[in-house]
Design goal:
- With 523 residues, this protein is α/β, with parallel strands linked by helices.
- It has two domains: 256 residues, TIM Barrel (Alpha-Beta Barrel), CATH 3.20.20.70; 126 residues, Alpha-isopropylmalate synthase LeuA, regulatory domain (Double Stranded RNA Binding Domain).
- Helix content is 39%, strand content 20%.
- The protein contains 18 helices and 16 strands.
- Strands 1-2-3-4-5-6-7-8 form an eight-stranded parallel β-barrel, surrounded by nine helices. Strands 11-12-13 form a three-stranded antiparallel β-sheet. Strands 14-15-16 form a three-stranded antiparallel β-sheet.
- The longest helix is centred in the last third of the chain and has 21 residues.
- The radius of gyration is 29 Å and the shape is elongated.
- The chain starts with a strand and ends with a helix.
Length: 523
């Protein structure tokens, strides 16, 4: 079985996605992580298109990569200009990459309407550019842009365009589904025709506009492709590119193509989240293989089954890609969910214990009121411990008040919170300003409690989400607040629900502080 080459284009195609932009150092850092994963080719950008990509190719020269080759991307020469005179071709060579990848037109419609040259002249552009590069660069890859659309419109010409590349002795021809509209069932006939026409190794470059990019890539490999292009997390223009975080485990763990080590495969989730972080995007929790919800179970029947045999509701062991099984707690929960979570939290609980049923009923009642514990494990752990009478009363809030004051028409409101807390036999009464009422309340609570519990100063409020629950009451609707807090060691989520947004926030903040104190106590 031929080893499949992995070609990552996150740093070029991925950056064409809406809302994504990487600094040069970001791109260098990502390149190192891709190399650690075992990626064969890292496409760094198009040196002729912008200064940032030129800067990347300069910067990457000073870096040591263990395995990956750096590829520079560009286009065929312009019409009426030789490769030696073409600025794009010369800029590619000046970047001094290990590999050059260029694209050319295979769809007669594009040749006539975009390039506005004859079909024969386009074949010359392809051959001349590739032959020129092949004489000067050790490895050249040709991306046959819009190949599948071109083949469906004019198969004879599309194959001629591939032959022009093959005659230049390129190392690989990647067939591109550039508009992302081809479906998996169309591949067999097209791939068969290509393999009969040319003998150059074939690759696949799929876009996700019909949500078939991963399926099309796997199908292409099954039909003989030995080179797969894609991006981490499926980043890319419009609906994205083929997601390597799905393709790599599918090819290796399900289709038997050995490409990276077991240890490298286990780093898949970490790489996925790292790229999300540098892109400043919230990770897609529903992403297959690497998402938080990829192996999360909510229904009681499911949880009961996976306790006996994980394979009953999991298509593979999540640890193979660095993920974990998660059990969610909601109004769909059964006793199994409660017992699994109790074990996770280190709480001794028996299925026959009446407290188990009490917790289950309380969860269902609270979710009926609008609570949600799927992103609030800390609040759920506190709920369980309270039901068992195992939560120490670290403090008691006797009263709080939050005031917003606007002192003139052209200034922003000023928020001030006042709190009165009791710790043991002592009462602390204090106030704090904040950037909004919730921030003021958070600061006031911390200020009041830090003299008793200095470790609260290590806490940070990392995220704050508000959801108005659809009760049909307009401004009187219930509000759910999810708060994510963290310290140098961990992160935890808490939840509060109320008709009053400040009150909902207060309950979430109190749980966050309670959890921090409980966690640090080691009880």
């Amino acid at each position: 079985m031929s080893r499949i080459k992995l070609y990552d284009t996150t740093l070029r195609d991925g950056t064409q996605a809406e809302d994504i932009s990487f600094l040069v150092q970001d791109k260098v850092n990502i390149a190192h992580r891709l190399d650690e994963l075992g990626i064969d080719y890292i496409e760094g950008g198009w040196p002729g298109s912008n200064p940032k990509d030129i800067a990347f190719f300069e910067a990457i020269k000073d870096e040591n990569l263990d395995h990956a080759k750096i590829a520079a991307f560009g286009s065929t020469r312009r019409a009426k200009v030789t490769p030696a005179e073409d600025n794009n071709i010369q800029t590619l060579l000046a970047a001094e990459p290990d590999v050059v990848t260029i694209f050319g037109k295979t769809w007669d419609f594009h040749v006539r309407e975009a390039l506005r040259i004859s079909l024969e002249e386009n074949l010359e552009l392809i051959h001349d550019s590739l032959a020129y590069l092949k004489q000067r660069v050790s490895e050249v890859i040709y991306d046959a842009e819009h190949f599948f659309d071109g083949y469906k419109a004019n198969p004879e010409y599309a194959l001629k365009s591939l032959q022009a590349a093959a005659d230049a002795q390129v190392d690989c021809i990647a067939l591109c589904d550039t508009n992302g509209g081809t479906l998996p069932h169309e591949f067999p006939a097209i791939m068969k025709a290509v393999k009969e026409a040319i003998s150059i190794p074939l690759g696949i470059h799929a876009h996700n506009d019909s949500e078939c990019a991963v399926a099309n890539s796997l199908t292409a490999v099954d039909l003989g492709a030995v080179h797969v292009q894609g991006t981490i997390n499926g980043f890319g223009e419009r609906c994205g590119n083929a997601n390597l975080c799905s393709i790599i485990p599918a090819l290796q763990l399900k289709m038997g193509h050995e490409m990276i080590t077991t240890q490298q495969m286990a780093g898949m989730r970490k790489l996925s989240r790292y790229v999300y972080e540098l892109a400043n995007l919230v990770p897609n929790k529903h992403q297959p293989y690497t998402g938080n919800s990829a192996f999360a179970h909510k229904g009681g029947v499911h949880v009961s089954a996976i306790q006996r045999h994980p394979e009953t509701y999991e298509h593979m062991r999540p640890e193979k890609v660095g993920n974990t099984t998660r059990v969610l707690v909601s109004d769909l929960s059964g006793r199994s969910n409660i017992l699994v979570k109790a074990e996770e939290f280190g709480i001794p609980l028996d299925s026959k214990d009446p407290v188990t049923l009490e917790i289950l009923e309380e969860i269902k009642e609270m979710e009926n009121k609008g609570y949600q514990f799927e992103g609030a494990d800390a609040s759920f752990e506190l709920l369980m411990r309270r039901a068992l009478g195992k939560v120490k009363s670290y403090f008691q809030v006797l009263a709080f008040r939050v005031i917003d004051t606007r002192r003139s028409e052209d200034t922003s409101p000023i928020s001030e919170a006042t709190v009165k807390v009791r710790v043991g036999g002592k009462i602390e009464h204090t106030a704090a300003d904040g950037n909004g009422p919730v921030n003021a309340l958070d600061r006031a609570l911390r200020k009041a409690l830090e003299s008793f519990y200095p470790q609260i100063g290590e806490m940070n409020l990392l995220d704050y989400k508000v959801r108005v629950l659809p009760a049909g009451k307009g401004t009187e609707s219930f509000t759910r607040v999810l708060v994510e807090s963290g310290d140098k060691e961990s992160r935890w989520g808490t939840v509060g629900v109320s008709e009053n947004i400040i009150d909902a926030s207060y309950h979430a903040l109190i749980d966050a502080i309670q959890y921090k104190l409980l966690k640090d106590s080691g009880e």
